[in-house]
Amino acid sequence: MATKSSGTSPDKRRKYDEAFKAEALRLAGESRSTQAATRQLGISPKLLYRWQQAQLVAEVGSEEVARDPEDRALRARLKRAEQELDILKKALVIFGQPTR
């Protein structure tokens, strides 16, 4: 009995360089939807989630800490607070300018 191959062998897998991965992670970080970022980049959501997990493990230094849901939630809140602070700083510059 012959089996049908799926058409993708391990030799034909796409390779992504570090610059593409960094850009994908940046885009996913800025985007509200990881799914939208993966559609825009033309990659699998699972692949992007794997890259995000690897980046988190590299930042934290421990896979156990990276998987802790409370730690992840606190990191997400911190990231959002930092983004809000950046927006407020920009608004302060814009509204702090004298009117003509």
Low-confidence stretches: 1-5
Report the biggest beta sheet as strand number plus sense, adding barrel if it closes: none
| Oligomeric state | single chain
Rg over alpha carbons: 20 Å
- Helix content percent band: 55-70%
Please tell me the overall pLDDT.
80
Class from secondary-structure proportions: mainly alpha
What's the helix count? Answer: 5
General shape? extended
Verbal overview:
With 100 residues, the protein is an all-alpha fold. The chain folds into two domains: 16-62; 68-100. It has helices at 18-30, 34-41, 45-60, 63-66, 69-95. The longest helix has 27 residues, at 69-95. The radius of gyration is 20 Å and the shape is extended. Residues 1-5 have low confidence and may be disordered.
What's the structural blueprint in terms of helices and strands?
Blueprint: H1 18-30, H2 34-41, H3 45-60, H4 63-66, H5 69-95
Helix pairs in contact: 1-2
GO molecular function, one term: DNA binding
InterPro entries: Homeodomain-like_sf, Transposase_8
Protein name: Transposase
